[in-house]
Amino acid sequence: MHSGNSQLVESLLNSATQRADQILRKKSSASTKGTLSISTQTTANTKQESPQPIHNYGKNPAITTTALAHLLWSHVLQDATHTAVIDATAGNGNDAVFLAQLLFPNLSNDTAQVSTNQLLCLDVQERACQVTEQRLADLLPQSILQNNVQVLQQSHATFPDSQGPVSLVVYNLGYLPNSTHLEGDDAPDKNIKTNTQSTLNSLMNAATLLQVGGMLSIMTYPRSDAVEDAAVHAFCQGLALFSSQTQDWRGMFTENDNKNHPDLALSPLIDRTVKQQIYFNLEKVLHALGSKSAWRVQEYKKMGWIDSPILVTAFRIK
Ligand SMILES: C[S@@+](CC[C@H](N)C(=O)[O-])C[C@H]1O[C@@H](n2cnc3c(N)ncnc32)[C@H](O)[C@@H]1O
Hints:
The protein is 43% helix and 15% strand. By secondary structure, the chain is α/β, with parallel strands linked by helices. It folds into two domains: 3-49; 65-316, 3-Layer(aba) Sandwich (Rossmann fold), CATH 3.40.50. The protein has a seven-stranded mixed β-sheet, with helices on both faces. Strand 4, helix 8 (196-209) and strand 5 form a beta-alpha-beta unit. Helix 5 packs parallel to helix 6 (126-139), helix 8 runs parallel beside helix 11 (272-289) and helix 9 packs parallel to helix 11 (272-289). It is globular. Mean pLDDT is 85; it is low at 1-9 and 23-47.
């Protein structure tokens, strides 16, 4: 290239880089406005020298329900041994990878490794199972994959026999979101999604498998399925009421009791059929675990975000 031209190109490049820098800095300071740790660092001098850090809050449990769910799982699985975990909606394998890191920590790939923990991942879609399996294979030693991990293409409505003691069953309801982990150009089919009846059956089976000190974790999406969300809430509220001193869980299903306890009333979205499914599934849990089982149930949602995903956890204390 002619040297005059190359200088011109270089100077154009320089000014473009400087302009891009300025835009990035502006964006960064706009997006962090009001954040104490950032705004107090901004002085006339630093503005020139160092670009503002761009924060990624995605992993902060105070910001996203997924990060909060992961934090709660890590509490349940602290020092986990001789226990099984079920990812009932494997999807793109993000949750499965996180669970595998908790269940099989400090493993290296070079020797045969042994663990007493088990991870079971279920999904109705073949491509979800393939992606999850591949991501686990990239992470775990072969011996662990073979002996301690199962990825099954089947509905979570029922679980395979002989799970042994289960300490955590996790659900991320809804449909398979698009992801860089999926092969091919086809977007996933959003019509293949969890549904109220199989979700309720699954929660009932999961609750009966769960050991004391174990937890159900359910991410629901009221925007995409308000009835399923309401049914999950009602089922888990029923679990919470098993050990209530003041309110019989069956009262949730009778109008008179609901007048006395409006906070416990079922959502109007729940029709007669779904009501019956919730009732019978709660009866089955009670029958399987006995009347002494006790649960502590919480929900976590973003305030001010209409229809934000909601995390519901049901922790078995007795
Ligand atoms: C929101 S995605 C799960 C995301 C996943 N946990 C992750 O970390 O990537 C929901 C998944 O549930 C699956 N699914 C729908 N109905 C199901 C059922 N009855 N049993 C098991 N999986 C189901 C869908 O195929 C989809 O992959």
